[in-house]
Amino acid sequence: MPMEIERKFLLVGDGWKAGVVETRRLRDGLLARFGEGKVRVRHGGDRAWITVKGPRDGISRAEFEYEIPLTEADEIFALCDMPHVEKVRHIVPYGGLTWAIDIHQGALSGIEFAEVELEHPDQPIPMPPWAGEEVTHDLRYRKATLLEHNAALLRTKS
């Protein structure tokens, strides 16, 4: 079974910028939630995917990802209820690992994370100086929580 093994950290400063080797714009839409899992559509550049993520087991979860035609992705985005997540992802190699620095825009503007995918849950991580507090298990930093909080703030302002 394909697995995602990932840890997430808040950013400290912008020292990561010097190591960027790739940058891409991504847009995610939440298509469905089931139990502790979800189905997401993602558009990035000239490619799009449907991703099914299972419930978390520590820092691991089943993840199935399938490339789909861009035209179908655009139609699927119209089916998503919550606001789309827009972000710029910067790829930064550090200590033999590939880090993804996500700078959110749109509904989550101002939210920034550093994420690293691992081969196994106990894999040691050489910590870059720009990776701050770990928020992997902090429910406040899950995208659904952030989107719900942002929607609540917008409702109180109107």
From TrEMBL:
User: SUPFAM superfamilies, per this entry?
Assistant: CYTH-like phosphatases (SSF55154)
Source taxon at top rank: Bacteria
Report the residue ranges that make up the CYTH domain in this protein: 2-158
Question: Pfam families annotated for this entry?
Answer: CYTH
InterPro entries attached to this UniProt entry: CYTH-like_dom_sf, CYTH_domain, NeuTTM/CthTTM-like
Protein name, per record? CYTH domain-containing protein
